[in-house]
Design a protein that fits this description.
Helices cover 17% and strands 35% of the residues. It is built from 2 helices and 4 strands. The protein has helices at residues 60-63, 67-76; strands at 2-5, 15-22, 39-47, 50-57. A 4-stranded antiparallel beta sheet has the order 1-2-4-3. The chain is globular. It starts with a strand and ends in a 7-residue tail after the last helix.
């Protein structure tokens, strides 16, 4: 899952938060390749899709200071009844 912010529409200005699920919990020192800018990796929770992880550039905290808590809450929320 990618959540993206693009204030100008230019690719160089895009900030993206990546949420992905793994069958096993990732090690605490897991790195996301050679990402530029550097990304913080956070374990969120275990949910029906697996272990949820998020990767975001450091500047994501400036745009959305509560993104970790907000995504964690969204993943743990009970689905709404469509009726």
């Amino acid at each position: 899952i990618f959540l993206m912010h693009s204030p100008t529409g230019l690719k160089k200005d895009v900030t993206s938060i990546q949420i992905w699920f793994t069958p096993e919990k990732l090690p605490a020192d897991y790195r996301l390749g050679e990402s530029a800018p550097p990304h913080d990796i956070h374990y969120l929770c275990e949910c029906p899709l697996g272990h949820a992880n998020v990767a975001a550039p450091v500047r994501a905290k400036e745009l959305w200071p509560t993104y970790l808590d907000d995504v964690r809450i969204a993943l743990s929320s009970e689905p709404k009844d469509p009726r």
